[in-house]
Amino acid sequence: MKYTAAETRYYAMKYRYAGHSGLRLPELSLGLWHNFGAEANESVCKGILTTAFDQGITHFDLANNYGPPAGSAEERFGHILKHELAPYRDELIISSKAGYYMWPGPYGEWGSRKYLIASCDQSLKRMGLEYVDIFYHHRPDPNTPLEETMAALAHLVRQGKALYVGISNYKAEDAKKAIALLKEMGTPCILNQVRYSMLDRWTEENGLLDAMDNQAGTICFSPLAQGLLTGRYLDGSIPEGSRASVNHFLKSEAITEKRVALLNELNTIAKSRDQSLSEMAISWLLKDPRITSVLIGASSERQLLENLKAINKPSTFSDEQIKELDAILARWE
User: Fold this and answer.
1) 62, 71 contact by CB (below 8 A)
2) pTM of the predicted model, to two decimals?
């Protein structure tokens, strides 16, 4: 694949600052949670990653447990990076995380200093990197003092193994504490990565976006609600190969008659905006300036390019559209 010149690569993509840091992320980032494990097709994975970069997606998001099996997404990314993208390392933002189960015994998950530092070392080895740009604690640990977990993140920055740090899946109270601790340690938290979509608005109910107080940015995963907002289920059927068909996070029982009807109502509004349902779902998140970036996944270059169309449409919504959308979403169960 021939890469476009840098000035062309970044022409259409827009970038936003992560909190009070000087780091800017593309409005759309590529998450490697699904579709990059050991059983994935190498050629397809390479095509997705290189096409994403050509389109101005400079941020690739991973975690130690992404696969399956755990670790395999980092290994695959490292291989493609070495053979395709290595000359562009200084144009890339690569993130990883640790917090979920990785190996047996008392040191293979959660948030201890022992686990986080060991896991970061393992991630760097799998990807063939000297450092990651962002390293996150992947989930709160109820049994480890927050001070220990945040101190481990700060230590990784001092070691040069991470340039920035963040948190993920933290609710408002713990997020505020984590941000304050990291600020005291001289290693500001720049991002909180959370699950957020039109159909999953717990961050609003929890007061999480307000809790960031503009100190840390918010980056959203599962913006299409595990595929419900892709438009694949608008006729009520479950296409072969879709997530609902393989019981992969989205179960077939979730495709109810009531939900299909509501999805079609949302799609009507999307059409009035000259967007697909998935494009509108992404624009709906980007309308909020507190959102730094939206993480999209892709199983093909075609799917990636479809979602990228969202950045070419305004992320603003009229008052009437917001009112209509809120009325529909209030009936979602």
Assistant:
1) no
2) 0.94
